[in-house]
Amino acid sequence: MPALKKLSRQIGGLVITLWIASLVIFLLIEAAPGDAASIMLGTNAAPDTVAALRSELGLDRPLLWRYAGWLGGVLSGDLGTSYTYGVPVAGLIADRLAVTVPLTLIATLLSILISLPLGVWAANRPNGPVDTLASLFSQVGIAVPNFWIGLLLILGVALGLGWLTPGGFPGWQAGIGAAFEALILPSIALAVPQSAVLTRVTRAAVIEVTNEDFVRTARAKGLSRGRALWRHTVPNALLPVVTMLGLQIPFLISGAVLVENVFTLPGIGTLAYQALSQRDLIVVQNVVLMFTLIVMVVNLIVDALYTVLDPRLRGRV
């Protein structure tokens, strides 16, 4: 079947790309200056102590041997042990994902809920008040970094108004309400730049489809402006919006690193920053590889959505 062949090719391409990415990640991290054992023990450590720690961590083994050992561990589910924390990396990442995954999902949902109605409304009434507001929002949202938005939210909403907590995460054991309350402001800080871009893309896509012949034909047959918009224009304008949403995932992940540090959230972004500063190579390697896998899987999902939104692609192999 064409669909199964296409899916198998995509999965095969994902595996090959992920293997190449793992090799590049390993070589780049190995090429970084500094030595993990020296950083962990400090500058005053004796050379024999540093050598003993390097041997214990396996850093004295050949480069190819270390890469093969790491890749084999990844395939078997054993991501190694953190140099800094002394715990399995898999459990460390899983604990941090319990914060980052809800954060990014809420931010993505917020950006869609903001950008789609605003972009469609602005395109339906060009040069009107809503269009002007959408243009202003897009310009400001794209220009202002998400960590600066986070700082403004902490100063204004959390400290100024006292509505929400300024930072930290109580943990899911404290209750879903308390946990989600701690994620509201970081999610808004992440969502604003993404929704600003999506608003602009949505507006442009809707205006472009509005000028197509099939929309004008539907209007000429007596279909009202509103029904033509939602039955014909918006469904056909979703393809570039979905494309942009998929392209924004890497920026959402990179933004989470900054936002989590601003709000002192124990997420995967904070873990990556701490591991990089502490030269915890095994954690950095696995976190970056996981980020790469997430981006690839999202691209697969976006590609699958193309066939749902555009029936012309369903028969292509």
Automatic annotation (TrEMBL):
The keyword Flavoprotein does not apply. The keyword Transcription does not apply. It is a multi-pass membrane protein. Its main location: membrane. Residues 97-306 form the ABC transmembrane type-1 domain. Belongs to the binding-protein-dependent transport system permease family. The chain crosses the membrane at residues 12-32, 97-122, 142-164, 237-259, 287-309. CDD domains: TM_PBP2 (cd06261). GO terms for molecular function: dipeptide transmembrane transporter activity. This is Peptide/nickel transport system permease protein. Keywords: Cell membrane, Membrane, Transmembrane, Transmembrane helix, Transport. It is found in: Cell membrane. GO terms for cellular component: plasma membrane. It comes from Celeribacter neptunius. Pfam families: BPD_transp_1, BPD_transp_1_N.
